């Protein structure tokens, strides 16, 4: 039997200050819970219907506007020079978040310094485009979290870099642990993801997704088109990148067994990823080079030709343990592995 949830439309009379935020959170949370259940049951038509219901609700629109007007980038405008700082602007923004007639603006290209002295390009969407992305992410994130790799830690709720490093430590800190590690660094991950792959595999409104991917960016008064990648700086990008990279752990598990099983104990292949950096452990360099590496290359090739150029480095586990204990205070130094 189908159950119904009453999703309120935007009140005819009201203001930003009259919004009952607890009620809006409850409404969105209930719908997200139903999306999770439908995803677990692989009822994709139902997922689509629930996502549509969520993105049309006043509650989700209000939370999307609240997110982009209260985060650290709220004072940074896109190419239109606009920010939403007053209650009236925020209220009007809620009522103007509509799918019909929506066309995103190009992103404003800016550069920020990296730790190595180089510059990282960022794409700054307009406030409306940020809010639309935040709105549709409320419907996409329940799917992303349900289908995510078990040992993926970057850009996910309640997970951190420290959690990833601790998992690496746990995979290597015993005398019977794997002795070799393959380190993967996906160069230019955000810039090189295949648009075709995203449109075929990301379970969300395809017209909206296509419009984001094709929006392009403005730099020095010129419009540049994009034929691959998701722009760093856009709210949707971390989730899209994670969903693109999810699935590699399942491939490795199917080939080498789940951790704790007899099959896995023979190869000691374990996988940990944080955003676009990952490691795979193995009992020998040979198994990592001859069996694991081809699986990774094929996986990346499917998601973008340039992703297949992922830098893979082989190291002994003592190097990884030393980095883990250095980076996370409280992790004990691992005895007995000095080389």
UniProtKB/TrEMBL annotation:
Organism of this sequence: Escherichia coli
UniProt family annotation: Belongs to the bacterial reverse transcriptase family.
Location of the Reverse transcriptase domain: 93-339
Name under which the protein is recorded: Reverse transcriptase domain-containing protein
Xref: SUPFAM superfamilies: DNA/RNA polymerases
InterPro entries (alphabetical): DNA/RNA_pol_sf, GrpII_Intron_Splice-Mob/Def, RT_dom, RVT_N
